[in-house]
Specification:
This protein is about 45% helix and about 15% strand. By secondary structure, the chain is α+β, with helices and mostly antiparallel strands. A three-stranded antiparallel β-sheet has the order 2-1-3.
Length: about 90
């Protein structure tokens, strides 16, 4: 059985892959917080994206992706939202 967090992450990544061609036009190199298969906010650093997401979504149902020509698996950051200590 897939956890709600893993399900959210998987669905967000699939949606993100489809959005990359459009997002890259104005947000190349930025990090996007995704929730419910939608881009929520863009940041210049992964740290800022984590702080925002941890504060806004206390249920942990979000993911963060770097916007590049080819989607990159951010490993722990894209697959395991955690409470930020920064």
């Amino acid at each position: 059985m897939t956890s709600p967090i893993q399900k959210e992450i998987d669905q967000n990544f699939e949606a993100f892959e489809k959005l990359v061609p459009e997002l890259i036009k104005n947000h190349r190199g930025q990090f996007v917080v995704m929730r419910k298969e939608e881009p929520i906010e863009f940041f210049d650093t992964i740290r800022d994206a984590m702080i925002f997401a941890d504060t806004k979504f206390d249920d942990g149902l979000f993911s963060i992706q770097e916007i590049n020509q080819k989607p990159i698996d951010l490993g722990w950051f894209s697959h395991a939202p955690v409470q930020s200590t920064v």
